[in-house]
């Protein structure tokens, strides 16, 4: 890869069962250049989450599928490499949901959250301080409304949402039982 290229992973075919490397294709394309009102984002951290499997399928779901030959979606923490956007400066860190599995992407600022110039732990924005943490917090506290002494059963307890639900449940004084996909994950 040179400074003028962008590596990106595209969905080459729809998986049947577990995805394999044959379902993806690594491409090298020209590094994009931001125009007026745009910024160039450089991916530093990429979140690989279970929901992505559903986005690889063309079955009806709560979210649109990734089109064949499109860049795989995914939450990213990026640094603004160049900016022609009035609200963003080069060097700022952002959480972006429109970049996906690629080194660089152009953004208009849509679905981007500023993390600042020097965030302490920028990768946290993809976990407990980001979408998985928010999902756990709202799901348990807003919908579940647990009370001390109650028992909470958490499916997928070793994933980012499940692990956070377990921690919040313990803080709230609940007995927490976690379920995970196998003996290895339960250790």
Main attributes of the structure:
Quinone Oxidoreductase, Chain A, domain 1, two-stranded antiparallel ribbon, alpha+beta, 3 helices, 187 residues, 17% helix, Rossmann fold, five-stranded antiparallel β-sheet, single chain
Explain what the structure shows.
The protein is an alpha+beta fold. The protein has 2 domains: 116 residues, Medium-chain alcohol dehydrogenases, catalytic domain (Quinone Oxidoreductase, Chain A, domain 1), CATH 3.90.180.10; 56 residues, 3-Layer(aba) Sandwich (Rossmann fold). Helix content is 17%, strand content 27%. The strands form 3 sheets. The chain has a 5-stranded antiparallel beta sheet with strand order 6-3-4-5-7, with no helix packed on it. Strands 1-2 form a two-stranded antiparallel sheet. The radius of gyration is 19 Å and the shape is globular. The mean pLDDT is 94.
Helix/strand class: alpha+beta
The level 1 CATH classification of the largest domain is: Alpha Beta
Strand order within the widest sheet?
6-3-4-5-7
Name of the CATH homologous superfamily of the largest domain: Medium-chain alcohol dehydrogenases, catalytic domain
């Amino acid at each position: 890869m040179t400074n003028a290229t962008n590596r990106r992973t595209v969905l080459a075919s729809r998986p049947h069962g577990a995805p394999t490397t044959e379902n993806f294709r690594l491409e090298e394309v020209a590094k994009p250049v931001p125009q007026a009102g745009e910024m160039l984002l450089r991916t530093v951290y990429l979140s690989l989450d279970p929901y992505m499997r559903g986005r690889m399928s063309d079955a009806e779901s709560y979210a649109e599928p990734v089109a064949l030959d499109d860049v795989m979606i995914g939450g990213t923490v990026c640094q603004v490499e160049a900016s022609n956007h009035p609200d963003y400066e080069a060097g700022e860190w952002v959480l972006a949901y429109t970049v996906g599995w690629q080194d660089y992407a152009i953004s208009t600022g849509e679905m981007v959250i500023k993390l600042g110039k020097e965030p302490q732990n920028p990768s946290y924005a993809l976990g407990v301080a980001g979408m998985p943490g928010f999902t756990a917090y709202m799901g348990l506290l807003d919908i579940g409304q647990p009370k001390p002494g109650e028992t909470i059963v958490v499916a997928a307890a070793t994933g980012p949402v499940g692990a956070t639900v377990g921690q919040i449940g313990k803080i709230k004084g609940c007995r927490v039982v976690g379920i995970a996909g196998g003996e290895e994950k339960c250790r």
